[in-house]
Design a protein that fits this description.
CATH class: Alpha Beta
Oligomer: single chain
CATH topology: TIM Barrel
Strand content: 5-15%
Radius of gyration: 19 Å
Largest sheet: 8 strands, parallel, barrel
Shape: globular
Helix content: 40-55%
Distance between the termini: 6 Å
Number of helices: 14
Number of domains: 1
Order of helices and strands: HHHEHEHEHEHEHEHEHHHEHH
CATH architecture: Alpha-Beta Barrel
Amino acid sequence: MNLLANRLPQAQLQPAAQLQAQSGMPAGISVSFEFFPPKSEKMEEALWRAIRRLEPLAPRFVSVTYGAGGTTRERTHATVRRLVEETSLEPAAHLTCVGASRADVDAVAESYWQAGVRHLVALRGDPPEGEAHYRPHPQGYAYAVDLVAGLKAVADFEISVAAYPESHPEAPSADFDLDNLKAKLDAGASCAISQFFFDPEVFLRFRDRVRAAGITVPLVPGILPVTNFGQVVRFAATCGASVPDWLAESFAGLEDDPETRRLIAAMVAGDQCRRLAAEGVEEFHFYTLNRPELTYAICHGLGLRPTSLCLAAEQS
């Protein structure tokens, strides 16, 4: 593969605004994608198929997660380094507070900066497996607000943080959760990416509250295409997201019909994005689960197209 050809200037990779206009979508829509690091050689092959499939859509960035409790730390680092070296994409590495001292986290951040990574996603992180509650590392960053401040002291990273349209499940109140979001932004973060949700009104009401609180940074909705409804219900239970009855009804009886499930999933997420775009949302973050086809189809519906330059780079 010709790596120089593959690392084309970002401006050349942007989808044409006229294509979005022809699709009925507002011009200027951009996207980003989340991937998780592989646990095996087979999963690594699947991850890179997903990355190569979505790369021609020229996302603003792609993020790479940590596992619960920081269990995939080294695989995350390896994936991020490969994204820098072998793709045209801007990686945003996840860093969490879990299971590491401040010195360890700072060292990782410094290594990312030296490798050319300029964007991080700063999160408190989930408790390690087998632990019911989060406990800060005794020498670590206690919470995401502390992590953001520490990372900004290491280097002038662009930092994204999490936002919760239905409040973090551990927050004592919605107001407390909103204050915490503001604190993370005041500490140096410049973008907030929302937890997934399914009712567009949930996000729009949250956006109204965020703006009323004087928060003006980009607030990007997180979109989770539903490939496995049972899995989504489990995800939702851990992060405090509601699952509407109409969504459950949409997938009822399709346990042994994956083709129809995919069609329903594309319809649901596509409608969700179109309704948000009609309310002025111009950027979407997709939780891909390393499965590219639904995300690619939804982005196509948003008017995003691969350019001839990007396709040439992919084939070189």
